Amino acid sequence: MSSERTKASVVVRNATLDDVPAIAALVLKVYGRPADGYTPGMLRGQISSFPEGQFLVEYDGEVVGYAASFIVSADLALKPHDWIEITGNGYAARHDPEGDWLYGMEVCVDPEIRRTRIGQRLYNARQQLCEDWELQGIVFGGRMPGWKRKRKQYPNPEDYVEAVKAQKITDPVIRYHLRAGFEPIGVLRNYLEEDTDSGGHATHMVWRNPYAVEVKPANKISYAVKERVRVATVQVQMRAVKSFEEFMSNVEYFVDVCSDRRADFVVFPELFTLQLLAFEKRKLSPAESIEALTRYTPRFIEEMRELAISYNINVIGGSHPTRTDDGDIQNVAYVFLRNGSVHAQEKIHPTPDERHWWNIKGGDSVDVIPTDCGPIGVLICYDSEFPELARRLTDEGARILFTPFCTDSRQGYLRVRYCCHARCIENQLYVVTSGCTGNLPNVENMDINYAQSAILTPCDYPFAREGIAAEIAENVEAVVMADLDLNDLNFARSEGTVRNLRDRRFDLYRVAWKDGG
User: Fold this and answer.
1) Rounded to whole angstroms, how far apart are CA atoms 251 and 230?
2) Where is the CN hydrolase domain (predicted)?
3) To 5 degrees, how large is the angle CA 44–CA 48–CA 53?
4) Is 466 one of the annotated active-site residues of the chain?
5) Residues 6+ away with beta carbon under 8 Å from 189
């Protein structure tokens, strides 16, 4: 009986958020050092910003190639720039749906895969996208690794490129791009400092789409197709409950109400589980209170997860003190998605009060959470007062931030409120806040609360007057909902009165994260 060998299959497709771990592993394999590649957050930002422009190649089910690209205007693409400036520090944050050029920010191929033309497949996918979208062409900064050896002969990098074009000398990367139909229109000086073989410079490569129309149709973004997300925020009256079952019954009531009105998300306040201390047999000290609450964590997570599934709604479960794997007690927001998955976001910045009375430690990572309505971010109370966190979540693709909070005075509440609205404006996204009201007289350090929960928007023409889509009256228990159109954010970012994300000066400043994000 003769045996048959099946050839390995090669698949080119768009990358998804589920592919991020595999792409990160490929990037690490190609570049060798994490600092030279992309963090998972950057990859999430690339895919979230423009999913149609991120391609990968699978060979026998393994990811062996990745290409990242986004759309920019001619003014940005064809003038001198550097890699950090044009890519938004690697997140593809400068993606402009109204632009007319496709910018190639990365192509990497598994060095162990030979003679399968993985790179060519990725370039072909980009060109096909460019033709399908009727863009003017493709632009990128290409490597010129042979210049290091020829630097004495050609001290001017432009002269080196011209010599390669004239076939006086050979540079493998430039020659590859020339054969692929690209032409150098100049040299991008100081493009990428890490590329020492190229002297930090890059060839300014252009491929012109032969099928591009001279005048683009107006309004490339389809505003007729509304991308709406219905969100609900619950302002919870803190009250004494007699059992865990009574507490969960109260929570289920609000989940049921929001589900009946077909909300996609419902958010509860920070530390609303402190109601569970009301039926302790004795009055506990602040430290004892938090320790007691951590015992409810497994049961709280499981029952909230079941509510999200059974009511078909994504639940941001406020926050709950949790003893983490390293032994610290942290203030953790659990997000329960209607598909049954559970995500956790630690509070990065505990307040002085939390540190002193409850010995709560700060978390060390903040990233978007993928949902069926796109990536979202969670910033617990005090974290909303640190702009760097919201900017990172925005760069990773979040268009809605949820902020559970717990404040005991109007001054404290207003700090959160004003900062949340600032995050809306500077990042051109939505923020949904949820706070506690009422009192728990037998719970130390939680005796009074002040809140006015709200759904906040940027301040521009497509949005609600005064940037408030909905809000609840001060210090009453209630639910409020609003429909948020995510396409309005696209419009604001590309054509708004101000364009905070696009107008950032990456040539002057950027935030550097320890994890590289």
Assistant:
1) 19
2) 229-486
3) 105
4) no
5) 80, 157, 200, 201
The amino acid present at 467, given as its one-letter code, is: G
420 has catalytic annotation: no
3-state class (DSSP) for residue 399? coil
Residue stretches of the chain with pLDDT short of 70: 1-8, 33-36, 214-226, 281, 443-446, 516-517
Q: Which of 347, 361, 406, 436 is catalytic?
A: 347
Per-residue pLDDT at 441: 72
β 137-142/202-208 pair status? antiparallel
Q: Tell me how far apart the alpha carbons of residues 385 and 398 are, in angstroms, rounded to a whole number.
A: 17
In the residue annotation, 270 being an active-site residue is answered as yes
| Distance (Å, whole) CA 473 – CA 451 | 9
- Distance between CA 416 and CA 398 in Å, rounded? 19
Domain ranges of the chain: 10-208, 228-495
Tokens standing for 278?
């009301």
| From 85, 270, 354, 396, the catalytic residue | 270
| Cα–Cα distance for residue pair 140/207, rounded to 1 Å | 9
Catalytic choice (130, 258, 381, 406)? 381
Q: How far apart are CA 131 and CA 140, in angstroms?
A: 17
Q: Going by DSSP bridges, is the β-strand pair 430-438/454-456 parallel, antiparallel, or unpaired?
A: antiparallel
- pLDDT reported for residue 51: 94
Candidates 224, 212, 177; CA nearest to 198 is: 177
CA angle 287, 292, 294 (to 5 degrees): 100
Q: How far apart are CA 277 and CA 292, in angstroms?
A: 8
Cα separation, 112 vs 122, whole angstroms: 17
Say which DSSP state 252 is in. H
Do residues 16 and 126 lie in contact, with contact meaning Cβ atoms separated by under 8 Å? no
Q: What is the pTM of this model?
A: 0.88
C-beta separation of 271 from 407 below 8 A: no
**8 Å CB contact between 399 and 369:** no
Predicted local confidence at residue 218, as pLDDT: 45
What DSSP string describes 86-114? HHTTTT-TT--TT--EEEEEEEEE-TT--
- Provide CATH code, domain 228-495: 3.60.110.10
Sequence letter at residue 210:
P
pLDDT value, residue 405:
97
